[in-house]
């Protein structure tokens, strides 16, 4: 992990250089020397701040996960709590945000998933991220369906998001974000259709707001 007091600009510079090196040569050949060359610094700087390549890889994944959480939370921030559909769409859209689907980030994600099976710090990050996604989706689905069904729906949607992302990342032409979102939306519609009477729609929310408030008062 980077030492306390490290300049944020330098930290970001080294993380971007790590992704560039992985994009260029793959994880195995993304050596400290190659990363340092991309960042325009000495290899000793990386060892000083991160303790080596493993520490820098962990910091890189933490930054990507932070970007993912921000992409989702910013989308959900202004959505009414009872608008289940929009909250689910926000989670989907956040996972297919630009910060998660660029070529360099996609290759880093793939390297991270493979490495997490062998490196304990990365394994912990993977488990936390997976649990967060399923937990968030389950909590949203729980607003309109029983707990067991909500957990199943959440597990299914999480698997679909990961699967669509993975197939897109491995496709030479890259991920078709609009198609991936559409397919995930269709899954949401299928699940919500089973509990249609309890699902709030934006139009219904707006109508109710107009009736109760004469003066009119985004994807975690």
From TrEMBL:
<feature type="domain" description="HTH tetR-type">
    <location>
        <begin position="8"/>
        <end position="68"/>
    </location>
</feature>
<dbReference type="InterPro" id="IPR036271">
    <property type="entry name" value="Tet_transcr_reg_TetR-rel_C_sf"/>
</dbReference>
<feature type="region of interest" description="Disordered">
    <location>
        <begin position="201"/>
        <end position="220"/>
    </location>
</feature>
<dbReference type="InterPro" id="IPR039538">
    <property type="entry name" value="BetI_C"/>
</dbReference>
<dbReference type="InterPro" id="IPR009057">
    <property type="entry name" value="Homeodomain-like_sf"/>
</dbReference>
<comment type="pathway">
    <text>Amine and polyamine biosynthesis; betaine biosynthesis via choline pathway [regulation].</text>
</comment>
<dbReference type="Pfam" id="PF00440">
    <property type="entry name" value="TetR_N"/>
</dbReference>
<dbReference type="InterPro" id="IPR023772">
    <property type="entry name" value="DNA-bd_HTH_TetR-type_CS"/>
</dbReference>
<comment type="function">
    <text>Repressor involved in the biosynthesis of the osmoprotectant glycine betaine. It represses transcription of the choline transporter BetT and the genes of BetAB involved in the synthesis of glycine betaine.</text>
</comment>
<dbReference type="InterPro" id="IPR001647">
    <property type="entry name" value="HTH_TetR"/>
</dbReference>
<dbReference type="InterPro" id="IPR050109">
    <property type="entry name" value="HTH-type_TetR-like_transc_reg"/>
</dbReference>
<protein>
    <recommendedName>
        <fullName>HTH-type transcriptional regulator BetI</fullName>
    </recommendedName>
</protein>
<dbReference type="InterPro" id="IPR017757">
    <property type="entry name" value="Tscrpt_rep_BetI"/>
</dbReference>
<comment type="function">
    <text>Repressor involved in choline regulation of the bet genes.</text>
</comment>
<keyword id="KW-0805">Transcription regulation</keyword>
<dbReference type="Pfam" id="PF13977">
    <property type="entry name" value="TetR_C_6"/>
</dbReference>
<keyword id="KW-0238">DNA-binding</keyword>
<feature type="DNA-binding region" description="H-T-H motif">
    <location>
        <begin position="31"/>
        <end position="50"/>
    </location>
</feature>
<keyword id="KW-0804">Transcription</keyword>
<keyword id="KW-0678">Repressor</keyword>
């Amino acid at each position: 992990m980077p030492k306390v007091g490290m300049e944020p600009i330098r930290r970001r510079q080294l993380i971007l250089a790590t992704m560039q090196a992985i994009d260029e040569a793959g994880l195995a050949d993304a050596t400290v020397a190659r990363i340092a060359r991309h960042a325009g610094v000495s290899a000793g700087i990386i060892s000083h701040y991160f303790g080596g390549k493993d520490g820098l890889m962990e910091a890189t994944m933490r930054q990507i996960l932070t970007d993912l959480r921000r992409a989702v939370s910013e989308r959900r921030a202004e959505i009414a709590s009872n608008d289940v559909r929009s909250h689910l769409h926000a989670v989907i859209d956040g996972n297919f945000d630009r910060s998660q689907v660029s070529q360099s980030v996609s290759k880093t994600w793939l390297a991270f998933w493979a490495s997490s099976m062998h490196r304990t710090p990365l394994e912990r990050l993977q488990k936390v991220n997976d649990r967060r996604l399923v937990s968030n989706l389950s909590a949203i689905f729980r607003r309109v369906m029983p707990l067991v069904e909500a957990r199943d729906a959440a597990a299914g949607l999480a698997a679909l998001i990961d699967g669509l992302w993975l197939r897109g990342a491995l496709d030479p032409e890259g991920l078709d974000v609009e198609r991936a979102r559409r397919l995930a939306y269709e899954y949401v519609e299928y699940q919500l259709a089973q509990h249609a009477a309890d699902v709030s729609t934006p139009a219904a929310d707006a109508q109710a707001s107009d009736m109760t408030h004469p003066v009119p008062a985004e994807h975690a």
